[in-house]
Amino acid sequence: MVCSRAMASKTPVGFIGLGNMGNPMAKNLVKHGYPVIAYDVFPEACKEFQDLGAQVTESPADVAEKADRIITMLPSSPNVIEVYTGANGILKKVKKGSLLIDSSTIDPAVSKELAKAVEKMGAVFMDAPVSGGVGAARAANLTFMVGGVEQEFDAAKELLTCMGSNIVYCGEVGTGQAAKICNNMLLAISMIGTAETMNLGIRLGLDPKLLAKILNMSSGRCWSSDTYNPVPGVMEGVPSANNYQGGFGTTLMAKDLGLAQISATSTKTPIPLGSQAHQIYRMMCAKGYALKDFSAVFQFLREEETL
């Protein structure tokens, strides 16, 4: 099965979910010469792909009828469940031997359930969430964390390499999601810590650029301090330099922390800082930061201190 797929490498690829991430990802498949069969719940999202020569369909089921390799990139677990198992879902018309790759970030337990349903239809499901955001999606520089049957990894990698630079096999279905959720929990915790530290240092009279420089040559250094500093004016080319526009939205971080919380509860794992980070990002969403980059937690802390 794997061999026959590799032989017909430029057979059509289905792509469902052409949003902020899915749009540039699907474009990179087109650039690599794959005929793309596209679907999005919002027809206007498909128009651009029609102009690029992609075939636009009426439903996920239609995509499954026309392509035996499908990538889904959707906002959350309910969307993924609907696209796979809904009245016009992929499973209504999926062909035996199809390879279904879900790059959405969802609950690992949902990935496992879907894998079982897909397997019953004689097809293969892999979870392959991404890290890197919209910029990396455009540049085909994403990291894919892949969970599923190892024998199928090469078949998945062939497609994922068109969209990313790091394709990492994590283990059985659900482990890709697990890796993504764990990374983002640590990212949130370290971003809040960086924001608190910078705010305190500034209050104590330190110049923010100097403080960042010291942190970045000391043991407190982390990605949030040296690559994505949350304080306006410390670094160029990051959301904090542009009123926290673009980047990775606070709503999405709150969602991923919610997934971490669900996973922690189901595995009886204590995550005191992860839970606290979840609540902070939930509060930010409620106070007008929903669409700002998650590094806006620095601005949020500055405003909270006046209460």
From TrEMBL:
A Pfam family hit: NAD_binding_11
InterPro entries: 3-OH-isobutyrate_DH-rel_CS (IPR002204), 6-PGluconate_DH-like_C_sf (IPR008927), 6PGD_dom2 (IPR013328), 6PGDH_NADP-bd (IPR006115), HIBADH (IPR011548), HIBADH-like_NADP-bd (IPR029154), HIBADH-related (IPR015815), NAD(P)-bd_dom_sf (IPR036291)
UniProt-recorded name of the protein: 3-hydroxyisobutyrate dehydrogenase
Main location: mitochondrion
This enzyme's EC code(s): 1.1.1.31
Gene source species: Patagioenas fasciata monilis
Chain ranges of the 6-phosphogluconate dehydrogenase NADP-binding domain: 13-171
Signal peptide start and end residues: none
Keywords: Branched-chain amino acid catabolism, Mitochondrion, NAD, Oxidoreductase, Transit peptide
Lineage top rank: taxon: Eukaryota
Gene Ontology cellular-component terms listed: mitochondrion
Gene label: HIBADH
